[in-house]
Amino acid sequence: MGNLLAQDAKGRNKRAHSACMAFEDDDNDEYYLLAGEDVVENEADREYYRKKIMELYEEKMKKFAREDALAKQIKCEERKKLCKRPTKKIKMQQPKPITQIVSNQVTQQLKQFITNNEMNGVERKKRKSTPTVENKKVEIVRNKITQELEEFITNELKGKEAKVVIQKTLYKSDLEENQNRLSMPMKQVIKSDEFLRKNEKQDLENGKEFEVKLWGPRLEMHKKPMVLKMWHMKSTSNYVLKTNWNHFVMANKKDLEINKKIQVWSFRRDEKLCFAIACLERDVDPQNGAA
C-alpha cells in the first residue's frame, strides 16, 4: 500500500503522521492518517483508516508499557545493589514482667531457717580458722629459773596475772634472720583464753595487731617493742611475736639457741599486755643457785 497523501487548504500535499496523536516520530511507522475526510470516497475506506489508527495506538501503548517495565527493572536492580550491605537488626528488649513477691508465714519461716543456718556456718568456719586447742598434757617445767622470773614479774615489775603461755623447743625457723618472728602455735598454747582479753582475741582474729613489751632471759626489757599478731594457717593458727624479733635474738644469742627449751610468760602491767621469755636451760648466777 503506497503512502496516502492529503491536501491542505492551500493545496499542498501533507502527510498525516502519528505525531498528530502526541507520539514521538517513528521512522518505521507505516501508517498515515488523512488530513481531511473530504478525500475519503466511501464508508468502507473510513472504517479501514479507523482500524489502522487503533492498531497504531495499541502498538504505541505496548511500546510505552515495555519501556516503563524496563525502567522499573533497572531501578529495582540499582536499589538491590545499594542494599547489598547487611544491616544489623536491633533486637528490642521487651520489658520484664513485674512479679509481685508473696510474703506469708511460709516464706518467713524459710527466711528464718536460712538465716540461722548461715550464721551457724559462719560460726563453724570461724571456730575452724581460729582453733583454741589446749596443749596436749605438756608437763610445765618448774625450777629456779621460772621461780626467779615469776618473782621478778610480781615484785620488781608489779605485774599481775603472770602465767605460762607456751613451752616449746626453739627451731631453726625461730632463729633465722629472714623469718624475724617467734611462732607460738595455738595447738601448743596452754590456754589462749586466759592470757588475752575477749576484745584482744577478737581483734587478733580479725587481722589486727598491737605492740607489746618483752623481757629477755636475763630479766632485761628489750628496748624495741614487739608486735603480737595472729597468723591463720590451713589447719591451725599461730600467735607470733614479730617486727623486732631479730634484734631480740642478737641481744640474747647466748641463751637462745636451736633445740633449747623456752617458756613464754604473759602478764599485765598497768593493764597492758607484756611478755617475758625464760630459757629453761640457761646457767643461773652462782648466788642464785643453779638450774
UniProtKB/TrEMBL annotation:
GO MF term list: DNA binding
DNA-binding among keywords: yes
Coiled coil: none
One GO CC annotation: nucleus
InterPro entries attached to this UniProt entry: At2g31720-like, DNA-bd_pseudobarrel_sf
Subcellular location: Nucleus
Organism: Lactuca virosa
Gene3D superfamilies: DNA-binding pseudobarrel domain
SUPFAM superfamilies, A to Z: DNA-binding pseudobarrel domain
Key words of the record: DNA-binding, Nucleus, Transcription, Transcription regulation
Taxonomic classification: Eukaryota, Viridiplantae, Streptophyta, Embryophyta, Tracheophyta
Record-given protein name: TF-B3 domain-containing protein
